[in-house]
Amino acid sequence: MRRSDLVQHKEKEKGAITRTTQIVFGERQHLLRVLDSLEGTNPPIARMQQERRALEELIHTRTRELNHINTAWDEKIGLVLSADAKPDMLEKLVKQAPEEDFYLLRLISEHPRANSKTLNRLAKHPYGAIRENVARHPNADGSTLTWLSKDRSQPLWYLVAFNPNTPTPLQRRLRDRLKRLGESQPSK
Questions:
Q1: Rounded CA gap, 115 and 91, in Å?
Q2: What is the pTM of this model?
Q3: DSSP 150-176
Q4: In the chain, N or C: fewer CB atoms in 10 Å?
């Protein structure tokens, strides 16, 4: 998990912290690795059984939490990771997914079969990694890229400048901006 995965939310200001699928899935994966590690050791049988039960319960709790955020979460992830994923199915999953399902939406935002309509919808998501993926995606259309280039919350304009689908006038302006930034940096 990257530090940027710990997204700042308005709920945090109110005292409630939203746990997204990105975080819960990461925890579950870590617990699975700990369980694998435990099974590779030879502690006393009673201790082994106790620790295994505790870890399995924590893993199941994370699975229930993922399914609470988005029903049948593992199955939906499997659909996105499938070689048979179709653009219409990806669009449907984006429409149905709750905003907190960062992991599923991030996977779709980098999927090679995501179409421009799906990417346009994802370009408005609050999670920066999703918007970054859209800005560099080869299927993003010119209007989506133009909109992302104006994002003030993060420097997506840099990624948009190098996307081949960026309208030529905008691409020139963004690359000129980058050149000016490079020229203003002191040489070492």
A1: 8
A2: 0.83
A3: T-SSS-THHHHHT-TTS-HHHHHHHHH
A4: C
